[in-house]
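Handoff note, outgoing to incoming analyst
You'll be picking up this chain. Sequence as last confirmed:
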Amino acid sequence: MKIEEKNCVVGIEYELTEAGGSEVIDSNKGGTPLEFITGKGHIIPGLESQIIGMKKGESSSITVKAGEAYGELNPDAVQVLPKEQFAGIDLKEGMVLHGQGENGQTVQVAVKSFDDETVTVDFNHPLAGKDLLFAITIADVRAATDDEALSGQVACCDDHSEGSCCGGGSCH
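Most recent structure output, in case you need it:
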């Protein structure tokens, strides 16, 4: 079965590096495949668009430009905040903090610098502005069940036999 634009459950093994670099940023090779449903926005758009048409067992090196990955660096995402907002935190340059955004979502910020009165933080994703290289292998492809297509979540079941809703894979 080929990966389609919508409602395919796909499992991938990947190794991520910055394009032109050699340091591995993230990897699940040898572990549980990353599972997602196509067309639901679960993975970065530039990676999803380039795996359409691939089949189980296929491998590829896929370069994803920054704009189709985590976006370009946004200078407006760097802010200077009063240090009292960070009371009780042992600040260090480069540390990553998690907080709650205006709409209740979890936000991640990196501490760029600080002094006695202010803290400069960066709300950009750590990979914003970077072109990425994914070395991937398609571990599994199957049609999403009606429930999965509706909910947007990959279901987990107890029947792991080939052809079952889990497609022979394992739940995590």
